[in-house]
Amino acid sequence: MNPKVDFYFNKTQKWEKEIEQLRLIALDCNLTEELKWGSPCYTHRNSNIVLIHVFNEYCAFLFFKGALLNDAEGILIQQTENVQSARQARFTNVDQIVDLAPTLKAYIYEAIEVEKAGLKVALKKTTEFKMAEEFQVKLDAMPVLKTAFEALTPGRQRGYLLYFSAAKQAKTREQRVEKYIPHILDGKGLDD
């Protein structure tokens, strides 16, 4: 156990018993406990294996390369259609976790083997993401915007493309594009 992570488990929260059980399972697999993105993260030789996180309706183990796991028990869930690599095992009570402990350990060991083998998830290229027409019009009209957008990291580019194209109405897409043009020109991502 990492004392720097203890505070996360010591604070009173809805899924207290459940996340403590998840912690024990991860530590029993000889993973290193760290704090990343404000959540307990378990690594093997500096590679992220699994993360504990909580939501209103459930708590979860998030397997970073869950898309590469066999998932023989069918317990892994893709959070949204845009999540390419990670998969969650979700829980709503401690008994579910206790019952699935051997399965979760097997998944963790498989995830470690995935890392040892150097396997990578084949991610969609940025060019494969939907481009909102309103954004394309701005890119065509403003070469400086196009240059700034292309200079962003692929992850930041994808973030903008997903955000702009997610709006159902053209007016909303246009407003989103207008709002974030200054961010793009400053080399910032959606959440920077």
Structural domain count: 2
Secondary-structure class: alpha+beta
| Averaged pLDDT | 93
Rg is 20 Å
User: Major beta sheet, specifics?
Assistant: 6 strands, antiparallel
Strand order of the largest sheet: 1-2-3-4-6-5
β content, as a range?
15-25%
Shape: elongated
Q: What's the gist of this structure?
A:
The chain has 192 residues and is of the alpha+beta class. It has helices at residues 3-10, 16-28, 94-116, 133-141, 143-151, 154-166, 170-185, and strands at residues 32-36, 39-44, 47-54, 59-63, 76-77, 87-91. The relative contact order is 0.10.
Explain what this protein looks like in three dimensions.
The longest helix has 23 residues, at 94-116. The protein has 2 domains: 3-116, Alpha-Beta Complex (Aspartate Aminotransferase, domain 1); 126-185, no CATH class. It is elongated. Helix 2 (16-28) runs parallel beside helix 3 (94-116). The chain has helices at 3-10, 16-28, 94-116, 133-141, 143-151, 154-166, 170-185, and strands spanning 32-36, 39-44, 47-54, 59-63, 76-77, 87-91. It has a 6-stranded antiparallel β-sheet, covered by helices on one side. The model has no long low-confidence stretch (mean pLDDT 93). It contains 7 helices and 6 strands; from the N terminus they run ααββββββααααα. With 192 residues, it is an alpha+beta fold. It starts with a helix and ends in a 7-residue tail after the last helix. Strand 2 (39-44) and strand 3 (47-54) form a beta hairpin.
